UniProtKB/TrEMBL annotation:
This is ArsR/SmtB family transcription factor. It comes from Comamonas jiangduensis. SUPFAM superfamilies: Winged helix' DNA-binding domain. It holds the Pfam family HTH_20. SMART domains: HTH_ARSR. Keywords: DNA-binding, Transcription, Transcription regulation. It comes from the Bacteria. The keyword DNA-binding applies. Residues 1-95 form the HTH arsR-type domain.
Length: 116
């Protein structure tokens, strides 16, 4: 992960609603959530949610998959882990701080598309 990608991801997460949406999707796991489920859970109007989901997708932190008539959104765990890895790669100036090699979440194996 390069610095430009990191800045884009952090900028996407630097909004309280987008951070809530992303954390909701992380908690949802590989199953993901539909926009109506997210909106209901967080009390966000669907029009605002759509904007925030597009921002998270543009930062590659969220993926979208159409299943029948429904869209499912999922956290991109591989991107999340890459971001965390970038932020902590020089943790404790290279000395063992007990966290080396820890992967927060396994990458998802579901096929996803980046449709808008």
């Amino acid at each position: 992960m390069n610095q430009e990608h990191v800045v884009k991801a952090l900028a996407a997460l630097a909004h309280s609603v987008r951070l809530q949406v992303f954390r909701t999707l992380v908690a949802a796991g590989a199953e993901g959530r539909t926009p109506s489920e997210i909106a209901e859970q967080l009390g966000i109007p669907s029009t605002a949610l759509s904007f925030h989901l597009k921002e998270l997708m543009a930062a590659d932190l969220v993926s979208q998959e159409r299943v029948g008539r429904n869209l499912f959104y999922r956290a991109a765990y591989d991107e999340m882990n890459a971001l965390l890895g970038y932020l902590t790669e020089n943790c404790c100036a290279g000395s063992n701080c007990g966290q080396a090699g820890v992967v927060c979440c396994p990458p998802t194996t579901k096929s996803t598309s980046q449709e808008s």
